[in-house]
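go over this record:
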Amino acid sequence: MGEVEFECVRCGSRIRSGGDEDSVVCTRCGDGLQVLPDLSSLSYDLVKRRWRSRPMGVWRYREMLPLNGGGEVTMNEGGTALLRVSVLGGSDLSVQAFVKNEGQNPTGSFKDRGMTVGVTRAKALDRRRVICASTGNTAASLAAYAARAGLACLVLVPAGGIARGKLAQAIFHGAHVLRIRGSFDDAMRLVVEASKRLDAYVLNSINPFRIEGQKTAAFEVFEQLGGQAPEWIVCPVGNGGNLAAYWKGFQELKAIRAIDRMPRLVGVQAEGAAPIADAVRRNLEEIVPVPTPSTVASAIRIGNPANWRKTVRAIRESEGLALKLPDEEILHVQELLARREGIFVEPASAAGVAGAIRLANEGTFEKGDRVMCVCTGHGLKDPEAALRSYIETPAVEPTLDAVVAAVEAGP
């Protein structure tokens, strides 16, 4: 296996790994790392024919990934739809709005993009056990890919803070699920140290190979828009890795001369868990962690995000924005997407679209702008959140007259 070079997102230190272990934090300052792929021999003219000869998905872009020697642990993840939507009401401008529907991935969320690369890396390193902390989607995804790879899987989740649909996925895929009396941040603090004691490979998004898989969504959007970047990308933000991954993907497209203009990024958080949004809006150098994050959008209920520095930097470099929205606004847009567009997403997914609607109403976008909203997970991940507003109707008699009378009476 060839060497992989990493760079610290804080101090810029570079680390090479060619053995049987990966660092997930910088040995000098303790901050996060990112993979530095060697793109010097690549150009879009060179790779586009190869890409077009392969099906849409994460491994279509193997030239842009640090693992390209075969042996992929895959379930044909990626290749999700980019759907034109009409929900950006309140704006009299001709704004083109799109949803990247990541709920179409094998386990129902964008996490699968990172897991196919991360678990492939674990296999290449001949690891036998993988570990993560999770609010749900990471656990479900890692459990599935670990099962496919034949690896033991351990997940730490906050007790009472995980949607049951996601918990069911992790359990049925055979993961050892440990419920922690505390928050996701408490679970995350335990993961790195526990991984050393238990000889487990960490697959939270602090693992830079996760971001490598997730950046392929940017490549797909580029191709789905006819070889162009959108003017805006609006994305829910929890731990922060996904928005940073989009930025990395578009940076690499620019490096191989596929695009000459970068999108602007918008990170959207819930009001009760918004350390990244607060740092951007207040121009802080460091985030202020939220001790007890609170939001119905469990996937982004994170008070001390591990990837905050990558995300804040990406938003600022793109001349982007950050928003925080109340739960009521997020849930309203979740229902709006389902009833107007036929797209059922979990609450955290609706946060991005809610942020785009807010900005459209405020006149942020210009005529002709393409606004791409990331919907990170399927609504069946957290059906209980959707059912909170459902009022059960009384049963009717099994007769035609009773059915017609009930329909004419209205819901």
